[in-house]
Amino acid sequence: MTVYDIPEGHPKKAQTFMLQSATDNAVVVFETRDVNSDGIPDVTVGTEGSPIGVTLYGTKDDRFSKQPPEVMK
């Protein structure tokens, strides 16, 4: 599964995230919430019926990362 992050008005800052593999026609489920309580929205992505999911953490510069901000360098 591929997730594209294209900030509004800033296509040069686009990011691509290669996530778990999914079967053809799998239902992709997104949830937006503040997972790590830092006041910045995060996105949880997974496929319906799969126990595996990935959280993309929102950062202060309006981007996303697979690592929580406190782990980023």
Would you write up a description of this structure?
With 73 residues, the chain is an all-beta fold. It is 0% helix and 38% strand. The chain has no helices and six strands. A hairpin with a 5-residue loop joins strand 5 (53-58) and strand 6. The protein is globular, with a radius of gyration of 13 Å. The mean pLDDT is 80.
List its salient traits.
single chain; 73 residues; mainly beta; four-stranded antiparallel beta sheet; two-stranded antiparallel sheet; globular
Show the helix and strand layout.
Blueprint: E1 2-5, E2 15-18, E3 28-33, E4 42-47, E5 53-58, E6 64-65
Antiparallel strand pairs: 1-2, 3-4, 4-5, 5-6
What's the short story on this structure?
The chain has no helices and six strands. Helices cover 0% and strands 38% of the residues. The model has no long low-confidence stretch (mean pLDDT 80).
